[in-house]
From TrEMBL, chain A:
Belongs to the RBM48 family. The keyword Transmembrane helix does not apply. GO terms for biological process: mRNA processing; RNA splicing. One of its GO terms (cellular component) is spliceosomal complex. Residues 168-177 have a biased composition (Polar residues). As a component of the minor spliceosome, involved in the splicing of U12-type introns in pre-mRNAs. The lineage of its organism: Eukaryota, Metazoa, Chordata, Craniata, Vertebrata. InterPro entries: RBD_domain_sf, RBM48, RBM48_RRM. This is RNA-binding protein 48. The gene is rbm48. GO terms for molecular function: RNA binding. Transmembrane segments: none annotated. Residues 158-177 are annotated as: Disordered.
From TrEMBL, chain B:
Coiled coil: none annotated. This is Armadillo repeat-containing protein 7. It comes from Gymnodraco acuticeps (Antarctic dragonfish). It comes from the Eukaryota. PANTHER family: ARMADILLO REPEAT-CONTAINING PROTEIN 7.
Length: 363, 192
């Protein structure tokens, strides 16, 4: 690889070709369980490799710089940019250096633009941290550290909240998880016991992890459940995982579940009734699911689903034949559900049914 | 790829556990590298840090630092660089003699490994570990790096020196270096 030729730390100096600019060969030998949707090379990303400076190669030399920068700007504010004429480029292509205001924008731009077609050319986008000044680097590390500490603290707080809410773990769940053989990494040298007593516990079962929260079940009818992709993820698998922290009851749901003493029974109810657990489901399907579930709920007797209490306004439509459940409170509940169903059915679906689901990234 | 029929938390944990298991069980060097890189990349996401900690992955990464395979070292060091941003992982690494193992990586031939080591040392700095991390030998190493031709190495070393220690400490280290050949000692990494 070309050795660094200059000591010029200004980002506008003659660029060097570094190894980390190269696209590595993709890995073709991964076993299926960890083979992602996209082919990727074997590479580790650290904060040092990432940067708010991106280099974009493969731009067709047909005068589309403005369009390129406009495309970049979709992902965040662009502070500076210029063509890198001195950088080795394939024939009829150009290379550009783009400085984003934020690292997260650069990350998103890289993820979305790398390997994409642009005016007939194939873009190759990579980070170029060597263009950072000392101050850039320091800020980058500081921001990263702050973000991690904040994220970890939030996670700890959520966990505490979930544990407080989830006071009725189902014993069946615990049984299944304890059957899992725990294969934690075993050190080659036996550690001394200071602070490592937790090692021993781990080998004997699955007792120390917090019980996986289940209360998301009774919010499922209310919310879209996929993680809103945040800029700082590198396209890891968890993008496809439901983010359980978004489970607060939303008033966007026309079917409001109240958090009160009914919670416990509601949990039981939805555990019986809910289909397969949290999965990656588009919003429109949620609406349909919710409708269907409410119809089912109206058919089966439910004891404790709470509905909003808004009175119907306007002329009453001829009512469908009522089911008498031979119990005053059940009948009241069923009526309330029926009323709400009417309301829900009158709301048109705003989103088009065909919604392109973006493929989620893997490492 | 995630199992989608149980809760997110245990899914994630189980998947990571599967990776660790494969790493321990497989004989294939190539598979080990892939899994190690996976784990190191997962360590970048704060959502995974607790799970990785419970699976003792910090120790896994530390063990990689003394391997012959340069990829193992690079990926392990990268994983530590990512994990050490989390205060709890940081403490685990400190307890497992992390400073000394990471410092040894400062003399690695691969620039990426060295960069990860410098960043990790910065992350490992706490009031109690500061003295060890600003040992004159390390400061001198950083001073040499700050004169490197590689811009990334220069910048990182500069941040280390400016943020990690006082001006007096740096000055003292510089003085000590006067008496030595600057080229001898910890070699600068090759950018190959």
């Amino acid at each position: 690889m070309a050795a660094p030729r200059n000591n010029n730390s200004s980002c506008w100096g003659v660029p060097d070709v570094y190894k980390h600019h190269e696209q590595k060969k993709i890995c073709i030998s991964r076993p299926k369980y960890r083979d992602g949707r996209r082919d990727r090379a074997v590479k580790v990303y650290t904060i040092n490799l990432e940067s708010n400076y991106l280099m974009i190669q493969g731009v067709p030399a047909i005068g589309v710089m403005t369009e390129l920068i406009q495309l970049c700007a979709l992902y965040g504010a662009v502070e500076e940019y210029r063509p890198l004429d001195e950088y080795p480029a394939e024939e009829f292509t150009e290379v550009y250096l783009v400085k984003f205001q934020k690292l997260t924008s650069a990350r998103a731009a890289k993820r979305r633009m790398d390997e994409k077609s642009f005016y007939g050319g194939l873009l190759h986008v990579c980070y170029v941290p060597e263009y950072e000044t000392v101050e850039d680097t320091r800020l980058k590390l500081q921001d990263r550290r702050r973000y991690i500490i904040r994220a970890v603290r939030n996670k700890a707080r959520e966990k505490e909240q979930k544990e407080a809410v989830n006071e009725k773990p189902t014993s069946s769940e615990k049984a299944t998880t304890s059957e899992t053989v725990i294969a934690r990494y075993e050190k080659t040298v036996v550690p001394d016991n200071t602070g490592n007593s937790s090692n021993i516990c781990h080998y004997s079962g699955f007792p120390l992890l917090p019980f996986p929260p289940q209360e998301y079940h009774y919010y499922r009818h209310g919310n879209p459940h996929w993680t809103i992709p945040t800029e700082d993820k590198m396209g890891t698998l968890h993008n496809a995982i439901i983010d359980t922290k978004r489970l607060e009851p939303q008033s966007s749901s026309s079917y409001q579940a109240s958090l009160d003493k009914d919670r416990g029974t509601e949990q039981r109810l939805t555990l019986n009734q809910a289909p397969a657990a949290v999965r990656f489901v588009p919003r429109t399907t949620h609406l349909e699911n919710r409708k269907r579930r409410m119809e089912e709920a109206a058919d089966h007797s439910l004891t404790d689903v709470t509905i909003n209490n808004e009175p119907l306004i306007g002329p009453k439509l001829p009512e469908p034949p009522k089911l008498d459940m031979e119990d005053v409170s059940l009948n009241t509940t069923a009526n309330l559900i029926r009323n709400t169903l009417k309301k829900v059915e009158s709301v048109p679906d705003l989103k088009p049914v065909e919604k392109k689901v973006k493929p989620r990234r893997r490492i | 790829m995630w199992k989608k029929d149980s809760s997110e938390g245990s899914d994630r944990f189980e998947y990571l556990q599967t990776l660790v298991t494969e790493f321990q069980d497989t004989d294939s060097e190539e598979a080990k590298e892939q899994v190690l890189a996976n784990l190191a990349n997962f360590a970048y996401d704060p959502n995974n840090m607790e799970n990785l900690r419970e699976l003792q992955v910090p120790d896994l990464f530390l063990d990689m630092l003394t391997e012959d395979n340069a990829n193992f070292v690079e990926f392990g060091m990268g994983g530590l660089c990512n994990l050490s941003m989390d205060p709890e992982c940081r403490d685990v690494i400190l307890q497992s003699n992390g400073i000394s193992l990471v410092t040894n990586c400062l003399s690695n031939q691969r620039e990426e490994t060295v960069l990860s080591a410098i960043t990790t040392l910065m992350n490992l700095t706490t009031p109690s570990s500061r003295a060890e991390i600003t040992d004159p030998a390390i400061l001198q190493c950083m001073l040499r790096f700050s004169l490197s031709e590689s811009p990334r190495l220069r910048s990182l070393a500069a941040v280390f020196l400016q943020d990690g220690c006082s001006q007096e400490q740096v000055a003292r280290a510089e003085q000590q270096m006067q008496g030595q050949q600057t080229a001898v000692g910890i070699p600068l990494p090759k950018d190959d």
